[in-house]
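tool_log.txt
---
The assistant was asked to compare two proteins side by side. It first ran the structure predictor on the initial sequence, then on the second. Raw inputs and outputs are pasted verbatim so the downstream comparison step can read them without reformatting.
(1)
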Amino acid sequence: MAVEELKEKIEDKHLLINSIRSEIGKILVGQRDLIDGLLMGLLSKGHILIEGVPGLAKTSAVKALAATVQANFKRIQFTPDLLPADLIGTEIYRPKTADFTIKKGPIFHNIILADEINRAPSKVQSALLEAMQEQQVTIGETTFELSDPFLVMATQNPIEQEGTYPLPEAQVDRFMLKLIIDYPNKAEEKEIMKRVGFEDPSEVKQVLDPDQLNEIGLLMKEIYMDEKLKDYIVDLIFATRNPEDYNIDISNYIQFGASPRATIFLSLVARAYAFLQGRAYVTPQDVKTVAADVLRHRIILTYEAEAEDITTEDIIGRIFDSVEVP
């Protein structure tokens, strides 16, 4: 595709993105990074894990995003007594015909909000894992393909430990992004109070349909990424595994580095971020901007790092300071 033609198409589709931002803004005050993170996951068709204390509108943000897309949406409240059948469905015996019929569960929707995902036990997580990775579920002896797009947007509370189960690393790695959200500032908090206490709730309108979503996905593949930038991404990921090769003294803080999914997702999300900025090319700054969201849940720290209060963000910062930018 010619550069000028690509720019025109990006500008055209970018109007849709601004409309989505505007519609979500009817419900959400501030949280621009969260909105952009959700959009990058949606456009890249990648699962998202959102972490933040209660009351920061994590659930409202996902519901608002889903409302802008012409797709099926389902919210599932994860609890310790949730069963795999409650998620994917089950076989039901019919005495009259002496056979089984399959009742599909809520997983058979386009966008799934897994609320407080870390409250469900491992059996439920394993059922969700097949859906996230293979885009299919197995009920009895029958395997069903899930709809396209299929996205899991999960929330979790970082401060409550009672009644929660740590997510398996294999599952955490399936999430394209882990978004950390913080408290609003004073002006935003005042606006929240005004909207909730004194105004009627606004209705979010549909902006995007699945065909347009697929068109944007194909368009993002055309966004230019220089070979040096691809090498830069690979170097960043390898620096999490073998930091000594890059003269970074953090080996004693890293137990396991990022997986190859980090390389794939970092290149996809960097393209998505460039698209959100209305550009037809990726810059090193795009990679730096999205890297923390892609890497923070893929770097496993040692006990020594935890004892010294060193976070994955600290590690990522050290890596970016040391790996040469093209």
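(2)
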Amino acid sequence: MSKFPSKAKVVIIGQGGIVGASVVHHLIERGWDDIVGIDKSAIPTDIGSTAHASDFCFNTAHDQMTIFTTKYSIDFFEKMGRYERIGGIEVARKGDDERMDELKRRVTSGKAFGNRVRMMSTAEAKEKFPLLEEDVIQGALWDPDAGLVVPRSQTVAGELVEAAEKQAS
């Protein structure tokens, strides 16, 4: 292991996760050097949000920055061959009108930012996900661009770090 540097142009704390690894990758790709990454554990990390992430990306939110970063991430991982667009469903149970209203708001926000998200009937939700108990839900949100980082974001984080190291040397 090399000696820990006393200074650097860039220090990224939490570099072992998918976000930190992606930041390092993008900085090196743009010509930055003298980057130090600090994390509590090995890369790919076994702690933090990456280790606990479902690896599932929904492209629905109420703010443009979250939508932009999610779309960018989906495209980025897809170009790496590390994303599967399988579509995603979020449901509202019968009697949970607040949840149903929130799903409708997320569809409105998603459409405002150019996403293909929409509401679907309980029958259509059941058709897409046969294990769903149609009689206990009142509606569902469908995001056809939702999907999975594959094989795992921990693995992809490690690949990003390796690619950045190769590019730097």
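---
observation on (2): Residues 59 and 70 are 6 Å apart (CA to CA). The longest helix spans residues 64-79.
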